[in-house]
Amino acid sequence: MDRQVEVVAGDHVLNRVAGAVILVAHREQGRLTPDSQAVVAARALGELVVDATAQAPAEPGRLVARQATRWLMKEAERISPGAPIEFGILSAADNGGLAIFLHGSVTAVLAGSVVEYYRGSDAAFTVDRVAEPPARAAAVFIDESRRRPPELPERGIGSLIEGLAPAAGAVVWFEGEPVVSRRPSHPAGARRRAMEPPPPTAAFDAERDPEPEAIPLDPNLIPTRTSNRIPASLDADPALEPADPDTEHLDLHRAPTEMGGSRETSGTNPAPKPDPDLQRRLEATAKATALTVKVLGFKCARAHPSDPRSAFCTVCGMPVDQTQQIAEVIRPPLGMLVLDDGMTYMVTADAVVGRDPEQSEPARAGLLPLRIDDSSGGMSRAHAEIRLVNWDITLIDHGSTNGTRVRPPGYRDWIRLQPNQPFTLIAGAEIMLGNRVLRLEPIAPPPFG
After folding, report:
1. What is the average pLDDT across 169-175?
2. Where is the composition biased (Low complexity) (predicted)?
3. Among positive and negative, which fits the CA dihedral 339, 343, 346, 349?
């Protein structure tokens, strides 16, 4: 987004990178430092945005949302053990739209002829929306008070082109002409690298590679960390670490579970040491994000809770020891529903789906309302329910006028559900509600080994 991004003064962290705006809440005591969890998270999310923009330069928003969701599941715990990382991302979406991704106490504001508010704290896990660019401005704020909605400040002359800044929020002004960046942006470098053989981590620090000309890569350059590793600021000086020859020709972004690190593991079947504190941190994080349902299950070598019927971990995809004793664990998200326009819904709790489910009886009974726009007239206000039963995701037609249809993976024809009869979904299944189609995708990467 080549627009003026004005910084609202505050004590949190704002990162402008590859045209996107990333705001991360600073919840630790004391002032911000380079090692603060919010700063580390902002840099890690910045790398994620750069990678997504390299793959979809004109419209990275959908990919940013999907990668941010997986980052929350796999990497956020390493940066902030036991405490959720609250953040918001505004990025460009297809057809000139604006992608909004929120997690935790973060609010997005769209100011046009009317003012719209999106609150991360109102969602069971995340807010993932694509909206039309507002006529005036879009903003993202860290919630300091739940009672008073944030207000847009008067427009100033400042504009953050790129980099980090302390902030309470950020305003992207859509009025007037776009702002032209005065220096090369990360996506340009990413597109240049796409024409060359990719380096070991598919990304270099922009400050170490500032030249816009396409030149041969210097073998002495030090690659940055990928999103499936701990950010560099958590380790001792990463610039002193030699490149790992075992990963030289591998794209770690496409195989995040196949490499466990050259120092501790090797080969295609890594067995990292279990973290004895991970369960405690999982429980603390789960309580903070309303994921408090306990079920019977197994744990993988990384102590992730997993479906006992699966040979691979529900969270990370690692093999699971099927001979261990079953125990009570906190159930992780069971999947991700991807709408036909790219919007995603994390399956974390029972939900009611329809074109206007907020005031429906299931929503008043406590089900999460998932609203889907449908101009065909074939979707009911409260069309269907998603119910989680132990480790299964079931779909129930709510007696809708036009019915609910499901196409399991490998099937050619659609199956119309009987009203009020649960149907168990599996990964790859498609759901038709009115004229809209959703697909259930797994959270964990494919099994390896």
Report:
1. 91
2. 231-242
3. negative
Q: How far is CA 388 from the centre of its chain?
A: 21
Q: Is pLDDT of 15 > 90?
A: yes
Residue-range domain boundaries for the chain: 1-256, 335-441
Q: 3-class secondary structure for 3-59?
A: CEEEEEEEEEEEEEECCEEEEECCCCCCCCCCCCHHHHHHHHHHHHHHHHHHHCCCC
pLDDT exceeds cutoff 60 at 434: yes
Name residue 115's beta-bridge partners: 111
pTM for the model stands at: 0.53
Reduce the DSSP state of residue 343 to 3 states and report it: coil
Ordered DSSP codes for 388-441: EETTEEEEEE-S-SS-EEEE-TT-SS-EEPPTT--EEE-TT-EEEETTEEEEEE
Other CB atoms within 10 A of residue 405 CB: 16
For residue 267, pLDDT beyond 50:
no
pLDDT in tens, 217-265: 444 444 444 333 344 444 444 444 444 444 444 443 443 433 334 334 3
Closest among 83, 143, 136, 79 to 108, alpha carbons compared: 143
Residue 82: left if φ>0, alpha if ψ -120 to 50, beta else—which one?
Answer: left
Q: Determine contact, residues 424/390, Cβ cutoff 8 Å.
A: no
Q: What's the CA gap between 354 and 369, in Å, rounded? A: 8
pLDDT above 90 covers what percent of the chain? 32
Q: Are strands 368-371 and 351-354 parallel, antiparallel or unpaired?
A: parallel
Longest dimension (CA), the chain: 65
Spatial separation of the C-alpha atoms in residues 92 and 129, rounded to whole Å = 12
3-state SS assignment for residue 364: helix
Q: For residue 258, which amino acid is it?
A: E
Q: In degrees rounded to 5, what are phi and psi of residue 330? A: -80, 125
What pLDDT is recorded for position 151? Answer: 79
| Pick among 3.30.200.20, 2.60.200.20, 3.90.1170.20, 2.10.50.10: CATH of 335-441 | 2.60.200.20
